[in-house]
User: Fold this.
Amino acid sequence: MILSIESSCDDSSISITEIETKKLIYHKKISQELEHSKYGGVVPELASRLHAIALPAILEECKPWFDQLKAIAVTNEPGLAVTLIEGVTMAKALSIALNIPVLPINHLKGHIYSLFIEKEAVFPLTILLVSGGHTQVIEVTSHKDMTTVATTMDDSYGESFDKVAKMMGLGYPGGPLIEKLAHAGDASHFIFTVPLWQSPLIAFSYSGLKNQVRLAVEANNPIDYPDIAYAFQKTATDHLIQKLKKYFKSRKPHRFAIVGGASANLYLRGEIEKLLSTYNTALLLAPLEFCADNAAMIGRCAVEEFIRGNHLAYNDITVNPRCKL
Ligand code: KG4
Ligand code: ZN
Assistant:
């Protein structure tokens, strides 16, 4: 079995995965959403201190499996430096105490494996990764071959929901709050310009849209916020769809998946389904409980790393906050 630790942002999570069967034996996550909510976003130092309390409390429950562990997996990149270090320090301590190696796991690769928890992986796959930190299109042909073909020039899809929620004083995380508010909204009252709609670039940008929304929020009353939320969610999603359509002109997707925290957005899922139906392409999604950060996806990815012998001694593990895929 592999014990896996995730602490790249504001979720403290540990899982235990059986290597041969890929079965998820244990999984627990403690989210810090309430603690960060009053600040309208994650406060890194606070997150780090909360991990230092939550991770040992979860680990206590994992003790019955300690003698069956073959490795400790840990998210070591990318993420917040001060929170990654909490998980990595725990992984190193366990590695020394149990005399087993460490498997360093890339968080983005982990999100891709959220699709394959307790399942065999299937490739090739075109992936839209939409999280708080990333908005990317990734071509995956095997566990080793993952190429980012489009990325954001500034903010991410998920982060723009967080910022709009903050402008409206709704709290954090903004994704589910804005999605809920948009249900009560009307399509016709506000129209925002789709980012980069005239640009030939296959890339994403959310800073301009955020500014359009800020001006609308400042100029209107809270009674109009549902309509603004609706128009924002529609425009943010139309932008993804427009660029994907452009990309598919040169490369029709064989299989497509959406991963990351914002892949829980039902409006986005619906629009992607509509787009893919014109290409007759299958859509893969992770169960809703594994869309946002969790250690189950890290454990599933860790099984692949373990099989390939990619483990390291504890003193060779480094934290790489800015690393990409
Ligand atoms: O993958 P994740 O849990 O953490 C990162 O790796 O960043 O993603 C968190 C992000 C947050 O920005 C959150 O607002 C967004 O995912 N999110 C959503 C929804 N649920 C979560 N965005 C839009 N709609 C949602 N329903
Ligand atoms: Zn994530």
